[in-house]
UniProtKB/TrEMBL annotation:
<dbReference type="GO" id="GO:0016747">
    <property type="term" value="F:acyltransferase activity, transferring groups other than amino-acyl groups"/>
</dbReference>
<feature type="domain" description="N-acetyltransferase">
    <location>
        <begin position="8"/>
        <end position="173"/>
    </location>
</feature>
<dbReference type="Pfam" id="PF13302">
    <property type="entry name" value="Acetyltransf_3"/>
</dbReference>
<protein>
    <submittedName>
        <fullName>N-acetyltransferase</fullName>
    </submittedName>
</protein>
<dbReference type="InterPro" id="IPR016181">
    <property type="entry name" value="Acyl_CoA_acyltransferase"/>
</dbReference>
<dbReference type="InterPro" id="IPR051531">
    <property type="entry name" value="N-acetyltransferase"/>
</dbReference>
<dbReference type="InterPro" id="IPR000182">
    <property type="entry name" value="GNAT_dom"/>
</dbReference>
Amino acid sequence: MLMATERLILRRFRASDAPTLAEYRSDPAVARYQSWDAPFPLEKAELAVRNFAASSPDEPGWFQYAIEHAAERTLVGDVGVRLHDNLKQAEIGFTLATAYQGKGFATEAVSAVLDRLFRLQGVHRVMGECDARNTRSAALMERLGFTREGLLRQQTFIKGEWTDDLLFGILASEWLARDRA
């Protein structure tokens, strides 16, 4: 399950990750478009890490990959995947600590996860959804070859307001065609 890229290691969460998870999820800029509120208490992070560690990337449900910076040996974010019951469709989401944003780490991490989903797990389709104001997440998905499939107006009530959601999707055939291009 361990994956390595040029600069990152994607792995299962471990108990020692909880303080760092609490730290970056407590950053208001990181939490802005996410379902949790900042601050993100250590106790909540410890519970989250236990739940993350107990799940499986090969079974239906959510699995959270820890993104570790290989050279620094530090947790810098996470990629979440919800594998559907049919094991052929998935949802993806990603979070990166502010200090590591804008440097290509999210693109590198999400690419590695997509590669695993399409090449090793045989997933047919992956979708992503983000707050329409989250232009950086939308741009990342478009950069990776996702197609913008829709806009859900005032879909989500979060942090006291109704927000629009953008829907994205990518098919295995589209991802695998990137190698031939």
